[in-house]
Design brief:
476 residues; alpha/beta; N-utilizing Substance Protein B Homolog, Chain A; four-stranded antiparallel beta sheet; 20 helices
Length: 476
């Protein structure tokens, strides 16, 4: 039965079926957007070839001469999207009519980039959607761009907190799972932080949130060449609160590689927590000689340069070991002019003489869960299955270090992780096997407050503004 027309009141004829409307080609060409293009290219390189965002993006910005506000935007979008990838995928899964595994990876990168702008920035929704659609349309045409447009408009129907309320477990029943979703961490990482902190409440929330904040750049002044105060004056930074050689740069200070003291090799980029752990090795008193030091896992060379400078000032020497030739070359470059001898060898079987060293640093390979704020993609790249292999390697390296240090000498075991298996678990096992004595490391972090009960020191971004470095000091 026909119905009367609303305009004329006369019966209207049934309309013939017609194919669905296609996304129409816009009249204007896609707008060039160098900042978002650099961010998208970074996301794709991270996914496709396991690139590190914090290394690749600055290179792209230099090559493409992207500076100022555009560089800041590219950095925020690339790093922020990497950090939030897991939560973004949960949101996108609610907005796409097929499994995300069926979405073309290049499109998924663009959807994540657009979703981050919608949920975590003050960019107007229409600008976030339109700019992402333009990126895709310029590459793949209007049909695919229509799909991206439709998905992002569904994402924009709710704010971030609304999405979290829909997706996260009840905080009363599963506080760790809730915080994992809220702060965009894999659950196993949030659990590792909770175990190390002994908290599933406010401090855990603060620790996970700190991983999503953009970290300041820390510099280390080369001992004997420039003081921290002089370095701060030359760079516009502030003398660091804990390390006597540290400087913290102001937010937005730009690429530190262009700073004159860095170019002149008077300073280098190094997290203050890393400085403190290297310095802790030098502080316990020794009976007898103190002129031969060893860095057993030296690449890429930051701690070796600091220790080499300090050893040289005291008339000593440093041997530096790394099994990868390219990393050993980096150590040679950064320690040029210092009393440092570099060896290409596996630290577990270095061929160096047993009992020959007064102080040994083991800065062991680890999950890197303590540096998630600096390596935005790392939280999603690492897996729980990685921990077992790493702890075996860490244990073997620490046992080798104990064999290389002389009786009465000191070993510093350092990892950039709070995971208990990598920290107290490894140390406790080596102490049990070898009979070495654990020193109270807190005494050798003299300016650092708000640390837990010893004998080890665990630093935290939310407490100290450093990476979450762990340090144990052992005397043979």
């Amino acid at each position: 039965m026909t119905q009367p027309s609303r305009r004329s009141g006369r019966p209207s004829r049934p309309r013939a079926p017609h194919p669905p409307r296609r996304f129409r080609q816009p009249s204007r060409p896609p707008v060039e957007d160098p900042a978002r293009r650099a961010a998208l290219d970074t996301l794709r390189a991270v996914r496709h070839r396991d690139a590190y965002a914090n290394l690749l993006l600055p290179q792209l910005l230099r090559e493409r001469r992207i500076t100022g506000r555009d560089a800041a935007l590219a950095t925020e979008l690339a790093y922020g999207t990497c950090r939030m990838a897991g939560l973004l995928d949960q949101v996108l899964a609610e907005c796409v009519d097929r499994p995300l595994s069926k979405v073309e990876p290049e499109l998924l990168d663009a959807l994540r980039l657009g979703g981050y702008q919608l949920l975590r920035t003050r960019i107007p929704p229409h600008a976030a959607v339109d700019s992402t659609v333009d990126l895709v349309r310029g590459e793949q045409g209007s049909r695919v761009a229509g799909f991206v447009n439709a998905v992002l408009r569904k994402v924009a129907e709710h704010g971030e907190q609304e999405w979290i309320d829909r997706l996260a477990p009840d905080p009363a029943e599963d506080p760790v799972g809730h915080l994992a979703v809220r702060t965009a961490h894999p659950r196993w990482v949030a659990r590792a932080y909770a175990d190390a902190l002994g908290s599933t409440g406010e401090e855990l929330a603060a620790a996970l949130a700190a991983n999503n904040e953009r970290p300041t750049v820390h510099l280390v002044a080369r001992p004997g060449e420039v003081s921290a105060a002089e370095l701060a004056a030359r760079t516009g930074g502030e003398v660091a609160p804990y390390s006597p050689y540290g400087v913290r740069l102001a937010a937005g200070a730009g690429d530190p590689a262009y700073l004159d003291p860095v170019r002149e090799r008077l300073a280098a980029v190094q997290d203050e927590g890393s400085q403190l752990c290297a310095l802790a090795l030098t502080r316990p008193a020794l009976d007898g000689p103190d002129g031969r030091w060893l860095d057993l896992c030296a690449g890429p060379g930051g701690k070796a340069a600091l220790l080499g400078a300090l050893a040289g000032m005291a008339g000593g020497t440093l041997d530096a070991v790394d099994k990868a030739p390219h990393r050993a070359r980096l150590v040679e470059q950064i320690t040029e002019g210092l009393p440092v001898r570099v060896h290409v060898a596996d630290g577990r079987d270095s061929g160096l003489p047993a009992g020959a060293y007064d102080r040994v640093l083991v800065d062991a390979p680890c999950t890197g869960l303590g540096a998630l704020r600096r390596r935005p993609e790392a939280r999603w790249r690492r897996q729980p299955s990685d921990v077992g292999g790493l702890t075996r390697l860490q244990r073997e390296l620490l046992l080798a270090a104990v064999s290389l240090v002389r009786p009465g000498g000191v070993v510093a075991y350092v990892v950039c992780s709070p995971h208990l298996a990598e920290t107290v678990g490894v140390v406790a096992d080596v102490v049990r096997r070898t009979g070495v004595t654990a020193l109270d490391a807190r005494e050798h972090f003299p300016r650092v407050s708000d640390v837990d009960d010893g004998p080890y020191v665990q630093l935290w971004p939310h407490r100290h503004g450093t990476d979450a470095m762990f340090c144990a000091l052992l005397r043979k």
